[in-house]
UniProtKB/TrEMBL annotation:
Keywords: DNA-binding
The name this protein goes by in its record: Putative transcriptional regulator
Domain HTH cro/C1-type: from-to ranges: 10-64
InterPro entries in the record: Cro/C1-type_HTH, Desulfoferrodoxin_Fe-bd_dom_sf, Lambda_DNA-bd_dom_sf
Lineage of the organism: Bacteria, Bacillati, Bacillota, Clostridia, Eubacteriales
PROSITE patterns: HTH_CROC1 (PS50943)
An annotated Gene Ontology molecular function: oxidoreductase activity
PANTHER family tied to this protein: HTH-TYPE TRANSCRIPTIONAL REGULATOR XRE, TRACRIPTIONAL REGULATORY PROTEIN-RELATED-RELATED
Keyword hit for DNA-binding: yes
Origin: domain of life: Bacteria
Length: 194
């Protein structure tokens, strides 16, 4: 661990938050000399202080210990880079349009890899003038159901959360051709072109 990098990061993040060393120390119930010591690279926060420091600075503990944030390269608003994450504990759905470090319920989440839809998960898509009407015969039991359906075009994402024991009957405003992403709680993420 590079203490000078850790200290420099703490200093910059504290400044971003508009706090003095004294204010930060008061919030954390430690001395401002301790903060000064960290920022000069002469020491590292105690493990017991890392969760509070992480919350206060709005940065993951891992990033504090690495001493760098490593921002993503900026890509345009293209939804072709869309990534889906689903928490296995609470079924929370998270998306990103670039590289991200995502966690939920205390677990780091991995990006879902979509596979081409099979016959059992293919959605029926009816084309009307302004909307897509989407249905399926997929089981919607408590243990096996479609959790969400997302319609993605080059610049838009429309998502509908689904629930067990409810039939899938969706309307998405039509924005031209795109991709439907379907997340089944047993079989994962699949896609079909529309």
């Amino acid at each position: 661990m590079d203490l000078s990098k850790v200290g420099n990061l703490i200093y910059n993040l504290r400044k971003e938050k508009g706090m003095t060393q004294k204010q930060m120390a008061n919030i954390m119930n430690i001395s401002d000399k301790t903060i000064s010591k960290w920022e000069r690279g002469l020491g590292c926060p105690d493990v017991s202080l890392l969760p509070e420091l992480s919350s206060l600075l709005g940065v993951n503990i891992e990033k504090i210990l690495l001493g760098e944030l490593n921002p993503n390269e900026q890509f345009g608003g293209n939804m072709k880079n869309l990534k889906f994450y689903v928490c296995p504990e609470c079924i929370n759905i998270i998306t990103s349009t670039g590289t991200a470090s995502i966690s939920c319920c205390g677990r780091k989440l991995e990006e879902l890899e979509p596979v081409k839809v099979d016959e059992n998960h293919a959605l029926s898509v009816e084309n009307s003038e302004y909307e897509w009407f989407i249905t399926t015969n997929h089981p919607m039991t408590k243990d096996h159901y479609i959790s969400f359906v997302a319609y993605v075009t080059g610049d838009k994402l429309l998502m509908a959360k689904q629930y067990p024991e409810w039939p899938v009957q969706l309307y998405f405003q039509k924005f031209g051709h795109g991709i439907l992403y379907i997340y089944c709680t047993k079989h994962g993420l699949s896609y079909q072109l529309i």
